[in-house]
Amino acid sequence: MILLALLIFVGLSAATWSVSVACYRSTYTDGPDVTADPNYGAVAACAVAAVTLTCSIPALVGYFAGLIAWAGAVYGFLNVPRGRATVLFGYLAGWSVVTRVVVLGVLSATAK
Asked: Which residue spans traverse the membrane (predicted)?
């Protein structure tokens, strides 16, 4: 059961990253592409792994721990200008809220 939950959290974290990057790319059609960064694959994988580990932390604390992981990846390891990194981080933060709400909804529906 724990392995299944971990796999679900990996999928949700990967989807959050992918959708956020897609939103970022549609926002900035000019200039360097974030996916063209030579470190992009490793950064994405490490960020998804780190956020997946925060999914087991309860609600609000887990959300903020996930934000720290996203921020570390975006600001620390991607070669993106600071303003654009903030936009990407904003997308990640927003989609993380959606992910957490979905998880809470599923948990409350299965608890009944």
From this structure: 42-75, 87-109
pLDDT in tens, 16-60: 999 999 999 999 999 888 999 999 999 999 999 999 999 888 879
d(C-alpha 75, C-alpha 111), whole Å: 38
* Distance in angstroms (rounded) separating the CA atoms of residues 43 and 64: 19
Confidence at 3, pLDDT banded by 50, 70, 90: confident
**DSSP letter string, 6-33:** HHHHHHHHHHHHHHHHHHHHHH--SS--
DSSP codes, 40-79: HHHHHHHHHHHHHHHTTS-HHHHHHHHHHHHHHHHHHHS-
Element (H, E) at 83: helix 82-111
Report the distance separating Cα 66 and Cα 19, nearest Å: 16
